[in-house]
Amino acid sequence: MDADHRERGPERDPARHAAQYRVDRETAHDLRERDAVGGDDDGPDAPQDEATPRRRMDDRALWVDTVVDQAIRRGEFDDLPLQGKPLPGIGGTHDPDWWLKSLVQRDHITGVLPAAQLRADAAAMDDTLDREHDERRVREILADFNARVIDARRQLTGGPPVVTPTRDVEDDVARWHRRRARP
Question: Would you list the domain boundaries of the chain?
Fold first, then answer.
């Protein structure tokens, strides 16, 4: 072991020392309060040993149990949203994006950035058009798509650039007719 490690053993660890100081201070405060109220079986002159912090924690645990029992009797835990259901997010695998997914679900965030949405719409455009039976409706869909592409290019909201090209309406309508003519 090097000299620094020997000097910074458990006796010299600042975080441990600070925590021990707080525990000792709270224990002394609790003992003074108990003695002022009349104490208990031990009396004020009873020797204090290492079991005192453990006893204090047991007393605190008993107090917490009492408070929870009282809240149950008052009905404060009745009709909770997940009563009788498993807590969400406590599955078997760890998902590093759990907070983002819960935010999207909780705040009902929908959609994606315009550039990504337009790329997805452009990729699915032939399937979208093939579901239509009227040329007028096909032209409306293409005009709407082109207008969204132009609007997305004009906006300066940040995010990835819009590189999706506009569609040639006449060319897409002609291809739509050819696809419909095939058996």
Answer: 3-40+48-74, 114-181
